[in-house]
Amino acid sequence: MTEGMVEPVYRLPRINEPAPEFEADSTHGKIRLSDFRGKWVMLFSHPADFTPVCTTEFVAFARAFDEFEKRQVQLIGLSVDSVPAHLAWVHAIQEELGVHIPFPIIADIKMDVAQRYGMIHPGDSTTAAVRSVFFIDPDGLIRAMIYYPLSLGRSVTELLRVIDGLQFNYREKLSTPADWTPGQPAVYPAPNTQEQMEQRIKEDAGKPNLKAWWLKTTS
């Protein structure tokens, strides 16, 4: 960094705020987040190429790629390694494990994107991105964030469940309860005035989906 220059300070992104824009080199060429406006995006970071846990994750993401495609979700990986390192790793996964990696991997050597998204956690590592996941909706808003330590591999099943829930919320304007999966009952917002409470009690009296005036499901 040039003497006298001040390193930019980034505020951590927040749910329901615009996802920080970026332009970066990747294994699929230069990409911008705005290139994917209109689609869901799952942006995820990994600590480093050629590491055991990261390799198992990328194999799992690749094998589930059709499931992400069905949901119109664009996967974008990221680490602070270079494009040549990413390409060598992708080639090794193809040659040694027989798995093709179909999604782009950002080369974030200067940690610009990682800093914008709060992917570097000094308590875990000062140079490697933790296993973070950002779910970005078609309007470019962050809808959910998950952070994992370097030692814990991610569950593709859970990531797909999160996407299913977020897309359901986005489409139906309803909430999803604990352990929800597609096809299960959803949850209506709780009344926030006495008038709304009394109206709900009156309308739903005796109905089986009225667990309590503040807990009403769709079935």
Please give a structural write-up.
- It catalyses: a hydroperoxide + [thioredoxin]-dithiol = an alcohol + [thioredoxin]-disulfide + H2O.
- This is Peroxiredoxin.
- With 219 residues, the chain is of the alpha/beta class.
- The protein has 2 domains: 17-172, Glutaredoxin, CATH 3.40.30.10; 187-217, no CATH class.
- It is 30% helix and 17% strand.
- A 5-stranded mixed sheet has the order 5-4-3-6-7. Strands 1-2 form a two-stranded antiparallel ribbon.
- Strand 1 (23-24) and strand 2 (31-32) form a beta hairpin.
- It is elongated, with a radius of gyration of 21 Å.
- The model has no long low-confidence stretch (mean pLDDT 90).
Compile the SSE list and pairings.
Elements: E1 23-24, E2 31-32, E3 40-45, H1 52-63, H2 65-70, E4 73-79, H3 83-97, E5 105-107, H4 112-116, E6 131-136, E7 142-148, H5 156-172, H6 194-204, E8 210-212, E9 215-216
Parallel strand pairs: 3-4, 4-5
Antiparallel strand pairs: 1-2, 3-6, 6-7, 8-9
